[in-house]
């Protein structure tokens, strides 16, 4: 679990990207991003944070691999 971004840290806006595609934007903290229904393949998530001075800082990307889900007759799997 990653620590939440507190508004006291000075962030005014956080933008979540998957590669070059912007997925969502948060302007109130604490920040938590939840992604659902990802397509199989590689995803490179990163965040751009904008502080109170308008300075923008990128995060390091996090690489996620989503594999194709196999059909199962057992709903517990």
UniProtKB/TrEMBL annotation:
InterPro entries per record: Ig-like_fold
Gene3D superfamilies (alphabetical): Immunoglobulins (2.60.40.10)
Name the UniProt record assigns to this protein: Bacterial Ig-like domain-containing protein
Biological source species: Singulisphaera acidiphila (strain ATCC BAA-1392 / DSM 18658 / VKM B-2454 / MOB10)
């Amino acid at each position: 679990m990653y620590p939440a971004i507190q508004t006291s840290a000075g962030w005014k806006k956080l933008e979540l990207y998957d590669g070059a595609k912007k997925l969502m934007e948060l302007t109130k903290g604490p920040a938590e991003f939840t992604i659902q229904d990802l397509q199989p393949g590689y995803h490179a998530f990163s965040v751009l944070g904008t502080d109170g001075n308008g300075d923008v800082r990128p995060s390091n990307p996090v690489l996620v691999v989503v594999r194709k889900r196999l059909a199962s007759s057992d709903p517990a799997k």
